[in-house]
Amino acid sequence: AQSVTQPDIHITVSEGASLELRCNYSYGATPYLFWYVQSPGQGLQLLLKYFSGDTLVQGIKGFEAEFKRSQSSFNLRKPSVHWSDAAEYFCAVGPESDMRFGAGTRLTVKP
Amino acid sequence: KAGVTQTPRYLIKTRGQQVTLSCSPISGHRSVSWYQQTPGQGLQFLFEYFSETQRNKGNFPGRFSGRQFSNSRSEMNVSTLELGDSALYLCASSILAGETQYFGPGTRLLVL
Predict the structure, then answer these.
(1) CA-only gyration radius of chain B, Å
(2) Is pLDDT above 80 for A98?
(3) Sign, Cα dihedral of A5, A102, B29, A58
(4) Is B2 strand, coil or helix?
(5) Are B88 and A26 spatial neighbours (Cβ–Cβ below 8 Å)?
């Protein structure tokens, strides 16, 4: 069965520092992998997705993620965090018609 | 182009009542999916509709139902509300089933 684990419930980083959010998945075949961001009171916005091909995926807002099959991971990274990045981040494994989401990682950005 | 809209945005009901939530997809999108988000269970898939047909259904009791109209608008209904149904209900639309989903802001339901 497909499932996603986000080991970090809450992460705090200083503005300008780099960020890495962890995601581990379990999936029977080649996974469809996604990262979404949710700001308070808002719906989810797709940051990036991986279906196949290049294992380093570029997304919006300066985010990128790397698919590592050997580690069953799809970690999200950003080289320099901005205060507006404070939000909750969800990793998900597809297909899109039946996505399974992780529990989310709440990101706090310190000035 | 307008995004996914959900009405109402907030709703308070009491146990035993029923509720209907509405979702209007992005113009031209024919697939609509529904999700429930709670602090305890996180984001869970409810069901997906495409061209007025339910394609997939998550692991929820029969009290949860939905439908899609010919204009792709979708409604979900929850009957005999329980306290545990309090949640943020998110709707997402895509051009076709299996394509990139765009989420609405959600309807926050509180059951007292």
Answers:
(1) 13
(2) no
(3) negative
(4) coil
(5) no
Please provide the average confidence, as pLDDT, over all residues in chain B. 94
Q: Is B29 in contact with B88 (CB distance < 8 Å)?
A: no
Q: Evaluate if residue B60 carries a pLDDT over 80.
A: yes
Q: Please measure the distance between the N-terminal and C-terminal CA atoms of chain B and give it in whole angstroms.
A: 37
3-state secondary structure of A107: strand
Contact A20, A76 (CB under 8 A): yes
Q: Is B8 on the interface with A (CB under 8 A)?
A: no
Whether B90 sits inside 8 A of A104 (CB atoms) is no
What letter represents residue B104's amino acid?
G
10 Å CB burial of residue A62 (0-12, 13-18, 19+) is: middle
User: B45 - beta bridge partners?
Assistant: B35
pLDDT for res B15: 98
Place of tokens 């209007």: B24
Establish, for the pair of chains A and B, how many residue pairs have beta carbons separated by less than 8 Å: 48
- Integer-rounded Cα Rg, in Å, for chain A is 13
